[in-house]
Design a protein that fits this description.
The protein has three domains: 125 residues, no CATH class; 115 residues, no CATH class; 160 residues, no CATH class. Helix content is 46%, strand content 12%. A five-stranded antiparallel beta sheet has the order 1-2-4-5-3, sandwiched between helices.
């Protein structure tokens, strides 16, 4: 059976309106949510209004299109020629703000299934497309993944136009550009590419368009599809595009010379190019005093190291390098491990896997019980395991501390690769001790330095050393000292 897509619909619009209706019904199918409203003026003229119930604004269609057409019929006593009736409809009767004209049947079908209204006139080979999208959405609510103490509380929604409005509301600059694309041969998902023309580099915008145009896939249901398809390196665990549901974060990225990719149907917006340092920053850093924000950023960098290496360092020292510990501390650990049936590496892996299971269970369960499962469950299981002599108390402290430090990182998708790499470092520590950890760090740093995001080095700002870039990495200088944008933007002067 041949799959009907917009690309293989070659049937032109006929002058016979009955033939057009039959063609539309054959292509779209006998769906009861596709409304065909026929308006006849005696025997002289026939007009058909086609829309999708639930996607279009029914009230506006009734009052702004159907009632106005019938009123015009009642006022006109003589027949109206076809070409003149079409022109009157387009220029005088239909008062919708967005109206287009098309002679392609594929454009009409796409418009109907997107929530717009199509008006066909008997004897006319063109159709009118009126912008009447008006489906129900959940509205603008507070961010659920990136909450802040101080700062805007609104978050993106699943409606594309609402999301672009939240950005346009913050950037009232005439150079703000919103380019539209449609991806997915089946879903025909609308994509918006947003940037400031006088700040972003032309090569970055061009590269975004090229990579999006190369996507050939049936469906785009979430921005994660696009993130995986257009990133520079598909074999790295680290995210090479930044995703957020906060409009202020996306606005800040656009003002720094990045490109935002907004996908209809998801509240998560992508920004590119992306740097490593972005995942250790929060929008709240710019709303608090610089001294406090700088302290928190330094704490995040330490937490990044601790959440990655704490279990492996504990394992390496207790297994291979016990002489590094003070004697009383070493004796205490040895006493606690007396009677434990497992080796240190099995202990660490067992506890790490247990906590990962509890963390995932807490995320998937309803909010009312999810937090209780993750926190109480970890405490109960840890205490029970210690009392049963399966796990040593010191390891419970190490694993708990590691989990707490991972929560300090603002971006959830950035903590996922750290959780994966933690097991790699545990294996290296169990095999080679601290030498294995050092080898893993070298390979990790080389890998990070080899990554790029839309041609921009992933570790930009960390090296090579640039004083202007360092003002917004480990510490956040006061606003009167932040006078330049990142090096990858076209207009680097932030203020005069």
């Amino acid at each position: 059976m041949k799959v009907v897509t917009y690309d293989n619909i070659k049937t032109p619009i006929s002058t016979s309106i009955d033939e057009n209706i039959n063609t539309l019904k054959n292509l779209i199918g006998s769906s009861n949510d596709i409304i065909f409203r026929t308006l006849r003026w005696e025997i002289h003229q026939t007009i058909v209004v086609v829309y999708t119930d639930g996607l279009a604004d029914n009230k506006f269609i009734q009052e702004g299109i159907i009632e106005k057409i019938t009123k015009k019929f009642n006022e006109t006593l003589t027949p109206i020629p076809t070409h003149r009736a079409f022109k009157i409809l387009r220029d005088n009767i239909i008062t919708v703000g967005e109206i287009n004209e098309s002679e392609k049947l594929s454009d009409l079908i796409k418009a109907i299934l997107s929530g717009d209204t199509v008006i066909l006139v008997d004897g006319q080979v063109n159709g009118l497309i009126a912008g009447t999208r008006g489906w129900v959405d959940r509205g603008v609510t507070e961010s659920t993944n990136m909450s802040v103490i101080r700062g805007p509380k609104d978050a993106f929604t699943e409606t594309l136009r609402t999301n672009t409005t939240l950005i346009r509301r913050r950037i009232k600059d005439p150079s703000l550009r919103i380019d539209m694309k449609t991806l997915g041969t089946v879903t025909s998902t609308d994509i918006a590419i947003i940037y400031l023309e006088n700040i972003v580099k032309d090569d970055v915008v061009k590269e975004v368009h090229i990579r999006l145009d190369e996507i050939n896939i049936d469906s785009i249901l979430e921005s994660g599809y696009i993130e995986e398809l257009i990133q520079d390196n598909r074999f790295t665990p680290f995210p090479l595009l930044y995703s957020t549901e906060r409009p202020d974060t996306v606005t800040s990225a656009i003002l720094e010379g990045r490109v935002a990719i907004v996908v209809d149907g998801t509240p998560f917006v992508l920004t590119a190019p992306t740097l490593f340092t972005e995942f250790l920053q929060s929008s709240e850093d710019y709303y608090q005093k610089s001294a406090y924000s700088s302290l928190i950023r330094i704490l995040r960098h330490f937490s990044f190291i601790l959440t990655l290496l704490t279990p492996s360092v504990y394992l390496a020292i207790t297994t291979f390098h016990a002489e590094m510990l003070p004697t009383p501390f070493l004796l205490s650990i040895a006493a606690n491990r007396e009677g434990i049936p497992f080796s240190s590496v099995v202990e660490v892996i067992l506890m790490e896997l247990t906590f990962e299971v509890l963390r995932e269970a807490g995320i998937r369960l309803p909010k009312t019980v999810g937090s209780a499962i993750s926190i109480v469950g970890a405490l109960v299981i840890g205490e029970s395991a210690v009392q049963a002599g399966i796990i040593s108390p010191a390891l419970v402290i190490v694993v708990s501390f590691t989990a707490i430090t991972s929560f300090v990182i603002p971006a959830y998708n950035f903590s996922i690769p750290l959780r994966m790499l933690r097991f790699v470092f545990i294996f290296l520590a169990a095999t080679f001790g601290l030498y294995g950890i050092l080898l893993g760090i070298i390979v990790l740093v080389l890998h990070l330095c080899n990554l790029t995001s839309f041609g921009v080095p992933y570790m930009t700002s960390y090296g090579p050393f640039n004083l202007e870039d360092q003002k917004d990495v480990y510490i956040r200088f006061p606003w009167n000292k932040l006078k330049t944008r990142p090096s990858y933007s076209k207009n680097k002067i932030r203020q005069s």
